[in-house]
Amino acid sequence: MSLGGGRSAYFYDVVVGQHGWATSEEFVQDLTRSQILPGSNVANLTVALGYRLAGWWGAALGLVAVLLPGALILLLLAGIYFTSGLAPSGGRLLHGMSAAVVGLITLTSARLARAALRSPTAIAVAAVTFLAVGPFRINTALVIVAMAVISVWLHRPDRPGATTASARQEQA
Question: Does the pTM exceed 0.85?
Answer without folding.
Answer: no
